[in-house]
Structure to design on (223 residues):
């Protein structure tokens, strides 16, 4: 069973870069697309982007200019970087497997607050 | 860009009752790429239905999905206490998008 664990700073200052890591266990990085999804407090889900181990990627057009998702197969990790953050980027960030158009396995999520 | 509109926003029902949740797309979407998720407070979403009508692994048969084109439905035949949660539909065309969610609360 694939298990995902998000990690990273819980507090980021405005205008800085948010950096999160998702560590994968129980499965192969090459078996799935890997996605990041976020959820502002009390609100709905927003897809951020996905990546495949061979470099295929797709980002939400509304975030594309600020997002970078990468894969480190040696560490079984997927990373998210979101630059120039504002309070609107405060959210729980989830990593998830993406296959056949569906999000199958989810991490428990990590709350990132943007505040000075 | 496709927009998914879920209704109602909140559904107040009693255990044992039937729940019918709607997801309407702003343009026709492929049933192959229409999914439903359940999210309980403090938890990550869980895949319930994929391909509009196929249950994911371990999902009880009281959950069923139907629909095509622009109109899709998630039905919970008899609500159990653990079914009170928020439900999201999601489609994957060129980019995945989620509906705004329907909260099923205890009446």
């Amino acid at each position: 069973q694939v298990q995902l664990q998000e990690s990273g700073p819980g507090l980021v200052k405005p205008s800085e870069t948010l950096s999160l890591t998702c560590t994968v266990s129980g499965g192969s990085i090459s078996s799935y697309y890997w996605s990041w999804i976020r959820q502002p407090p009390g609100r709905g889900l927003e897809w951020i982007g996905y990546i495949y181990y061979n470099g295929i990627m797709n980002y939400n057009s509304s975030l594309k200019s600020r997002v970078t998702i990468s894969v480190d197969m040696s560490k079984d990790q997927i990373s998210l970087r979101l630059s120039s953050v504002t309070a609107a980027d405060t959210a729980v960030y989830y990593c998830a497997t993406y296959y056949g158009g569906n999000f199958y396995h989810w991490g428990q999520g990590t709350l990132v607050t943007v505040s000075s | 860009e496709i927009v998914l509109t879920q209704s109602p926003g909140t559904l107040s029902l009693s255990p044992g009752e039937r729940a019918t949740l709607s997801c309407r797309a702003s343009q026709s979407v492929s049933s192959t790429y229409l999914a439903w998720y359940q999210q309980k407070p403090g938890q990550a979403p869980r895949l319930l239905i994929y391909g509009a009508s196929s249950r994911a692994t371990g999902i009880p048969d009281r959950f069923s999905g139907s629909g095509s084109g622009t109109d899709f439905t998630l039905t919970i035949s008899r609500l159990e206490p653990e079914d009170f949660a928020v439900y999201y539909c999601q489609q994957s065309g060129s980019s995945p998008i989620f509906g705004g969610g329907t909260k099923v609360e205890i009446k």
